[in-house]
Amino acid sequence: MKKYIVLMMAIILSLVLAACGEKSQENVVEKLEEIAEDLTSYQSQAMMTLETGKEEQVYLVEVSHQKDDLYRVLLKNEQDEEGSQIILRNNDGVFVLTPALNKSFKFQSEWPSNNSQPYLFQSLIQDIINDSDAQFKTTENYFVFETKTSYENNSNLPFQTIYFDKKTYTPVLVEVMDQDKNSLVKVEFSSFEIDPELPDNTFDMETNMTSSIFGVPVMAQDELPSQLKVLYPSEHFGSELVEENQMDTENGKRVMLSYQGEKNFTIIQETLDVYPTSAVVPETVSGNPVDLGFTVGAFSENSIEWHHQGVNYFLASEELTKEEMREVARSMSTEEAMK
Fold it and tell me: Any bridge partners for residue 193, and if so which?
């Protein structure tokens, strides 16, 4: 009799939940897919906090998307406005732009579909679909998914929790976590507008290289670094600095650091006396954009190149893996990297 009563109560509870409109995981995923398929455009704003290095980094992230794979992601660094960047995908390819320095890279890349992107709506939905073991729950205001991520060059962030608003099905919060479920990347959405009218030049590279987007002018010649403050990686995978060469070049100053040991690699740091007046012809890279936490760099087969606070950096190695190169580069982002 007792078992019968328990069974009846369970049936009644399920009927009550159904009557209240409680959605199943399948219902929610189906609705999210439908929204992603039907929308012609969207714009979002979010605050992204990174705790993956020694110092916390905070970015304002503004995303504009239009159907047929057009994306513009503005990454405004709260600590270093001159380091603010744009990731752009248009009909001509994938670009990373640093307007204040008039620097740009063009990639032969499948971005954003080749990696998890915690601030992109379609990427979040794709991660949910790809994970057959995704966990799902509902709260008073949110649909909540916990899924695996797909970071090609960073296995240290294998999980994420995604919160969607129950009324609008738009993302509210994404937390990307390490193996121990510690939240290291947090994306907090403040707005998400579906099907806005976007200006015709939203995804035009030349337009986005103007100073008006971030309100930060191109760095003037008298604002360029007068001295090259050499940074040294705190992560070097068992190798030691065996040689340091400093030289003057036609365009500025250059330092070359050579590390040898378990895994050999070379780092070049360079200042320029004069930055280019135009970046209409960007530097082409056969690789992918890489998030270093403090900036977005360019990954090629055996190297990473990035720009930070008026200095160009280049790291090359045939022995470090891509993930190891990324960790060496990330370890050069703070004052602790100075000797």
Answer: 43
Comparing CA positions, the residue from 193, 176, 174 lying closest to residue 64 is 193
Question: Is 6 inside any structural domain?
Answer: no
Answer yes or no: do 72 and 131 share one domain: yes
pLDDT tens per residue, range 210-230: 755 665 555 544 455 556 889
Strand 311-316's sheet: what is its strand order? Answer: 239-248, 252-261, 265-272, 311-316, 303-308, 296-300, 288-291
Q: How many angstroms separate the CA atoms of 36 and 23, rounded?
A: 18
Domain encompassing residue 114:
25-208
CATH number at residue 47: 2.50.20.10
* 44-98 confidence digits (pLDDT tens): 999 999 887 677 888 999 999 999 899 999 998 867 666 789 999 999 999 999 8
Closest by CA position to 185, among listed 299, 45, 53 = 53
Tokens representing 258 are 């050579």
Please check whether residues 249 and 312 belong to one and the same domain: yes
User: What are the φ and ψ backbone dihedral angles of 337, each rounded to 5 degrees?
Assistant: -80, -5
Residue 202 lies in a domain: yes
Q: Is residue 129 part of a domain?
A: yes
Q: Find the farthest-apart pair of alpha carbons in the chain and give their distance in angstroms, rounded.
A: 92
Whose tokens are 């219902």? That residue is 27
Single-letter code of the amino acid located at 119: Y
Same domain, 261 and 193: no
- Does residue 330 contact residue 235 with C-beta atoms inside 8 Å? yes
Tell me the two tokens of residue 158.
């294998």
- Is 18 contained in some domain? no
Measure the CA–CA gap between 326 and 153, rounded to whole angstroms: 8
* 8 Å CB contact between 91 and 72: no
Distance CA 200, CA 223 (A): 34
Of 72, 76, 67, 101, which Cα lies nearest the Cα of 87? 72
